[in-house]
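Weekly structure sync, notes
Attendees: PL (lead), two postdocs, one rotation student
Agenda item 3: pending single-chain targets
PL asked that the sequence for the first pending target be pasted directly into the notes so everyone works from the same version. It is reproduced below exactly as submitted, 308 residues in total.
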Amino acid sequence: MAKKPPILVVNESRQASKPRKPKAKRQSAQYKKGGGRGKKKKEERSKWNFPAWAHYVVMGIVAVLFLAGFYYFFIHPYAYRWKPCYGTKAYGVCLPYGYEVHGFDISHHQGKIDWEQLKRVQHAPFPVRFVFMKASEGGDFSDTAFQRNFEQAHEAGFVCGAYHFYNPKTDPVRQADFFIRSVKLRTGDLPPVLDIETRPKDVKKLRHDLKVWLDRIERHYGVKPILYTSYKFKTRYLNDSVFNSYPYWIAHYYVDSVAYQGEWKFWQHTDVGTLPGIDRQVDLNVFNGTMEEMDRMRIRADSAGLGE
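Predicted structure, written out during the meeting:
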């Protein structure tokens, strides 16, 4: 049988592919239809386009808000550090105006202190006369530097005081007894101090427990304890007549005066002080009164709970 010419075979395959053209047309129609929808969406989006200048305005507003927030939260609280000192500058800071009795407070964080060098500040133009030292925390933590600092501070001639850092999660009786075992106050020392800074989950329970600690300490040492806290903490959590009867030691840094409007005895005005004999920065304080008035606060010989 004779074979068909090759050209005919090629023509047949091309003819066989012709029925596929309608399908291609349908795809083209769908593409055109879809393209119409895309064009419509593009037109809808174009309605919300901002002019170029508006983008710059929005970016400028965002930048201003960011800088304002950064200043408010990270610079403004410490701006007092860089303010010009129009009063008396000593010990690395601008001293609060109108106070004649200065002091400081320490813990193991200050490292080893050269008390021979430090005692010279008692006779400086702005004498530093008193020191509070951390003795205990919670129900079982003793400050490792307390006993050494307490002895050497007495030998150096400072008026001494001791404080307990309160833990709201620990039983107040246990904390009070631990402080009593840790601290043997002497005639002429300042009253014991309760340092309360930790925010409570239950304010009512905190107030009850603090009163338990204060009462137990007062019975033992025969003197009303001092309450240390920030002015904000005092206003928010201890705004109660029961606690107003205690002498207050208020912490409020980098300001010209204490914001707390109630009665207070001591003011911790900075945490960046520098004193000879102490390598690290230290908290500085003032007493709200004269040296004679502070002497009247000191523990008398007939008080209970004194050491030898």
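Discussion points:
- The radius of gyration is 38 Å.
- The longest strand covers residues 128-137.
Action: rotation student to compare against the earlier draft before next sync.
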